[in-house]
Amino acid sequence: MTASGTLRTVAALTGLAATVPLDLAAVAVVALRSGRPATEPSPRPRTVLLTGGKMTKSLQLARSFHLAGHRVVLAESVRYRWSGHRFSRAVDRFHIVPEPGAPGYAQALLDIVLRERVDVFVPVASPAASVHDADARSLLDKHCEVLHGDGDTVRLLDDKSRFSEYAASLGLRVPDWRRITDPSQVEEFEFPPGREYILKRIAYDPVGRMDLTRLSADTPERNSATARSRGISEDDPFILQEFITGREYCTHGTVRDGHLQVYGCCRSSAFQVNYEMVDHPAVREWVTTFVSALGASGQLSFDFIESARDGEVYAIECNPRTHSAITMFHDHPDVAAAYLDDGHPVIEPLAGSRPTYWTYHEAWRLLTASGRADRLRSILAGKDAILTGWDPLPYLLVHHLQIPSLLIDNLVRRGSWSRIDFNIGKLVENGGD
């Protein structure tokens, strides 16, 4: 870690400490103004295991299941053992498990399933965990329901080029693409005139995914230099994907045997921390067609672009895991039933539901970015995705225990980080999850 990096980390810790009184006041106001939501308990209470305990989307699902009368068990790796969400009133038990992919991860999940008598396992997977949760099904399927695709399905969806190939085989629109396993393939590619492409690593890359360097027939030197700098190989393939200018959308879908039961769509951006439902029939039709043909169960999230050129929607990629857009369902009473019951009618965020945001992200943008009037409107019209009156501890402890513990650990390790992501509950680092 450089001296500037150390100073930056210390400054972040100091800033978080300084906001403790403000957050205590915010929690007190919200607690006085809102009580526990009125709910109708499920006629069949179950024990539900959720992973990804550091992430807001896991907290949101825990609250939804809890309010429906289910017992919630939350799990996370040792690095995130101080997740503020473990202290939620919606969480009955918290367990520490190995990192996904580490020896013993699947066995640790099985031990929890047996010890806690889990009925349903709903992975809230990080990008690094999706495949490992799928592989764990070989141990878990005999003991509980697993709301996640099998290994073959998740690997198909998680691979940007294989996903594009499969979607195109269904007659669904995706950007033009090529699978790249050697830099020479980019140098030899005949770029169509007037069209731009970007290189994206197929494996999850928390930092590099923000690099949208445009490549085209007019930039041969840039094309070569970019391809040669990425470490492309047979073992670490990339996708060369057409860059389509237009409006971005993202979706969350919960699917049971190919039947879409939870659906949310919102406008998107490279660093997405605001969620508000929008009705886009073409996007919904694309999603419904795809999941019906796939016939799997699980949580499938898609990124789309509505082309400024032809007005059509193109699916950029699929992420076979929970999307943070699930926070749009913060006041929906039927989330648990739509997740757990076969044949449940599809639910969408309630018409009057307030959009969600993360206060610290909004505050940072108020201080550093333009468009302050828009930020204020977002804050006044929406709600913090973590803060709720009947369950206040997660909000306090994410900001004043979870994130500070990660910053201190980073300081001790002399590591580096590019951003604090309060939504995911982590520091964005090279090689991170």
Describe this structure in words.
This protein has helices at residues 3-18, 20-33, 56-67, 105-116, 130-135, 137-140, 151-158, 160-169, 183-188, 220-229, 281-294, 335-340, 359-368, 372-381, 393-413; strands spanning 47-50, 71-77, 93-97, 120-122, 145-146, 177-180, 196-201, 238-243, 246-256, 259-267, 274-275, 298-307, 313-319, 356-357, 383-384, 419-421, 426-428. With 433 residues, the protein is α/β, with parallel strands linked by helices. It has four domains: 1-33 and 356-433, no CATH class; 44-146, Rossmann fold (3-Layer(aba) Sandwich); 176-243, Dna Ligase, domain 1 (2-Layer Sandwich); 245-353, 2-Layer Sandwich (D-amino Acid Aminotransferase, Chain A, domain 1), CATH 3.30.470.20. The strands form five sheets. It has a five-stranded parallel sheet with strand order 3-2-1-4-5, sandwiched between helices. It has a four-stranded antiparallel sheet with strand order 10-9-12-13. A hairpin with a 4-residue loop joins strand 16 (419-421) and strand 17 (426-428). Helix 1 runs antiparallel to helix 15 and helix 13 packs antiparallel against helix 14. The longest helix is centred in the C-terminal third of the chain and has 21 residues, at 393-413. The chain is globular, with a radius of gyration of 22 Å. The mean pLDDT is 94.
List keywords for this structure.
single chain; 433 residues; alpha/beta; Rossmann fold; Dna Ligase, domain 1; 4 domains; 5-stranded parallel sheet; 15 helices; globular
Give a brief description:
This protein has helices at 3-18, 20-33, 56-67, 105-116, 130-135, 137-140, 151-158, 160-169, 183-188, 220-229, 281-294, 335-340, 359-368, 372-381, 393-413; strands spanning 47-50, 71-77, 93-97, 120-122, 145-146, 177-180, 196-201, 238-243, 246-256, 259-267, 274-275, 298-307, 313-319, 356-357, 383-384, 419-421, 426-428.
